[in-house]
Amino acid sequence: MEIIISSNTSKPIYEQITSQMKAMIMSGQLQTGDPIPSMRALAKSIHVSVITVQKAYEDLQRDGFIETTVGRGSFVAAQNKEFYQEEQQRQAEQHLEAAVDIARSSGISLKTLIDLLTIFYKEE
What we know:
5 helices, 3 strands, 3-stranded antiparallel sheet
């Protein structure tokens, strides 16, 4: 598993870990039941504090992406397709909200924004 931490973003390190692991799970790169590195191992491999990784794992567990068992470790949780779809929709909504903010502040009309979205959606 490759996690890349960027110092050129305002996003906290634990959120970078969380978002990348969620993306790997949602894309199928990590499957249900796959083990994930221990907090200590991941912290060492990406050169961050164990506490930072612990925060990321707590968020992943709270959101239902991983399950942790004392003595066994952490694994990708079994999730239904609707859960993943909801998470993907939430991410799309965040991007669309940012696009709308840019459009409003730049004077781009709603029609133009809808036309652009339609073009991007239909592209393969």
